[in-house]
Amino acid sequence: QVQPVESGGGLVQAGGSLMLSCVASERTFSGYAMGWFRQAPEKEREFVAAISRTGINTRYADSVKGRFTISRDNARNTVYLRMDSLKPEDSAVYYCAAKAAMTPYILPSEYDYWGQGTQVTVSS
Questions:
Q1: What average pLDDT does range 53-63 have in this prediction?
Q2: Cross-strand pairs, 49
Q3: Each residue of 81-95: pLDDT tens digit?
Q4: What's the pLDDT score for residue 28?
Q5: Distance CA 60, CA 83 (A)
Q6: How far apart, in whole angstroms, are the C-alpha atoms of residue 25 and residue 37?
Q7: Strand order in the sheet with 4-7
Q8: Is the Cβ–Cβ distance between 83 and 68 less than 8 Å?
Q9: Alpha-carbon 84 to chain mean position
């Protein structure tokens, strides 16, 4: 069973950058597609980015395309989310999720395991 644990959130000014990390305690981490989602107060959880289990295929929400980069290091059981050119509307709790599949998925309901989340706040 995968137990994702996120880190790297914090407070940053608009235009700044953050790198989120998600470590999964699972020896077969490379068998899981991974995704990042976010949820702002009083809003539904939304897709941000996802990556296939090999790291070859990625998908992004239109709102972050060109600014965010998802990557993974299977040797370290870790998936990353590099966030550049941050905007106040990127403020949310960011969640890491895992799905026992090859390809990246974009619906929260398709993921099997979730982390507790890390807060990202972008000030204007």
A1: 97
A2: 36, 60
A3: 999 999 999 999 999
A4: 83
A5: 12
A6: 19
A7: 4-7, 18-24, 78-83, 68-73
A8: yes
A9: 14
Give the C-alpha separation, 9 to 91, whole Å. Answer: 10
Alpha-carbon torsion (66, 45, 19, 73), positive or negative: negative
State both tokens at 101.
């599949």
d(CA 26, CA 41): 31
Rounded Cα distance, 96 and 20, in Å: 9
Residue with tokens 């619906």: 107
81: tokens are 């989310």
Q: Compute φ and ψ for 47, nearest 5 degrees.
A: -70, 140
- Determine what percent of the chain is predicted with pLDDT higher than 90: 93
Residue 67 is predicted with a pLDDT of 98
Tracing tokens 């068998």 back to the chain, one arrives at: 31
Instruction: State the DSSP string of 29-66.
Output: GGG-EEEEEEE-TTS--EEEEEE-TTSS-EEE-TTTTT
Residue with tokens 């807060």: 119
